[in-house]
Amino acid sequence: MTAKAMTAKTILLTGATSGIGLALFEQYVSRGDKVIACGRDEAKLARLAPRAYKTCQFDLNSPDEIKAAMQSLSLDNVLAQVNIVILNAGNCRYIDDAKQFDGQLFQDIITTNLTALGWLLQGALPKLRSGSQLVFVSSSATILPFPRSQAYGASKAGIDYLANSLRLDLLKEGIDVTLVHPGFVKTPLTDKNDFNMPFLITSEQAATAIIAGVDKRKRYLHFPKRLTLLLKLFSLLPASLWQKIITLK
Length: 249
Prior knowledge:
Layout lengths: L2 H4 L3 E4 L5 H12 L3 E6 L2 H7 L5 E4 L5 H13 L8 E4 L15 H22 L8 E5 L12 H21 L5 E7 L2 E2 L14 E2 H13 L4 E4 L1 H12 L2 H8 L3
Parallel strand pairs: 1-2, 1-4, 2-3, 4-5, 5-6, 6-9, 7-8
Helix pairs in contact: 2-7, 4-5, 5-6
């Protein structure tokens, strides 16, 4: 057995069919890791199946589908093999008129991006062994509020708290937690944005940064730093000043 085979990881990856998730899938598989590719689109999953260790289809908005998928992976003894869980899947939609607040849109985004994680964790966490790793892909949008991002930002802020709180409770279990704050990444989701996205990077660049940080078992990753450090600097300024900067058109 080669050294590479001995160190191969088994990775449960949500949102594996597009964007950052697809780039993660490609890079992990190319280096010899075994990826359980999770997604909603059956046709896209079918295209990954020949190279995936296993595919798993479910809709993040359906707790029953998530629970059934996790139970299936558990019965097949697949979850017990997992070294890394990467919770990457999500959606982004904007509230264009805050005065006419869209409650349904808000609920949909919170459900997809945050509530679904509870069902995924319920299924996966009991099977994770000491030495495993949980990775939450959040957003640099939580560093500083952005216009129109009430739903998306709130869901990602919830992920931040979830990850940081779980880290405390899982310490005694020997399970590490990594929180990821990407900046603007070119994906099918961001292709819909109608505003300037400074320091835009590719999905492949994002995946490379995530894998490098996860390999080092870092608690917190943020990139590209020319954006995230700028946002952190803005957050230290008086509110009246950074609000003017961030709402400039």
